[in-house]
Protein: Similar to Transcription factor IWS1 acc. no. Q6CGB2
Organism: Pyronema omphalodes
Amino acid sequence: MSNIDENELHMDEQVAAPAPYNDHSDSELSDLDETFDEYNAMVDTTQAEAIPLDEDTIATLGKYKKKGNRAASEEEPPKPQKRRRRDRARDDDEQMGEAPVPEIELTEAEKKRRDMDKLMDDAIKTKKKAKRRKTDVDLEKMDDEAVDNLRMKMIEAANADTEAIEAGNPATSKLSMVDEVRDTLGRQNLLNIAVDCGILRGIRRWLEPLPNKTLPAYNVQKLMFEILAKLKPDIVHLRESGIGRIVMFYTKDSRPQRLIKREAEKLVRDWSRPILGRSDDYRSRAIPIADGRSSAPSSQRRKSVDDTKHSALAAPVKDTGRARVMMPQSHSYEVAPVSRLNNVVGPIRPITARGDEFIRKMKAKKAARR
């Protein structure tokens, strides 16, 4: 026990012993105080000698660069430029893609199935690409070729019918192509480019009279005028194709059916408007108005009076006793009558207004008598 107590006392003495006095620390503190005093004095002088900033003082200032910073920048390597997040994400993806993927061991059956699936996927991809290339080739070019082929077939059929009539045989080439022409030009995409591809020349050849001065079949005429009604040719196409002469011929000839003649007259009106500079708006149409006097000359009026006198002196027509049915007649008027309501001031009263007023007066009289 005596030995342990002596050791503990010896350790306590070592811990409690004070550190030796160091003169260097006091000298360093005094140096710091002196530097701070000098810095405060400099700050006071700079604040006292502050110069106001204006345009003149700013113009006199020069450009200064710190040498220390320049030297440091020369010694240090250039900092790498900041890259965008996209580039970082791309690098991460590349790194992830480059990372080797551990292969899973497959059986022979699974390997065969994988190879078969790969072959099927490659075949489907190649077919899709080929199909896209074919569709992207040129649909417009294919449509132009289809219309050109149809036009050439129509001209060949017209020439074949002409040769058949000259040889004394029936003309059936155009009739056999009616369905083909209807199906081809019934497609809207082909109908839009048909005028530019010269389809009007084929239509003109189909509507021309045959060498024996007979018109084409009614089915051919009807189909051609239906197609012409859908087309929108301009003046250049009409002049180059010569279709206007054939359509005008159908308006003047007496052999075409009434429906065909009506369609031809409508086409002539529609095609002549841009040539004459007229609008197709009905409201802008100039309608001639009668002036209220008879337009017939005096000689014709005298002649009509003589005819009435002669008919009065003639023998009466015997009544055959047969019933007669009135047939409706369609009249087309080109001159409008003079309106008599232009000078009327105020609201126009209806025709039944007088009758209503008379009934009202009668009711008032009956009420007064009661």
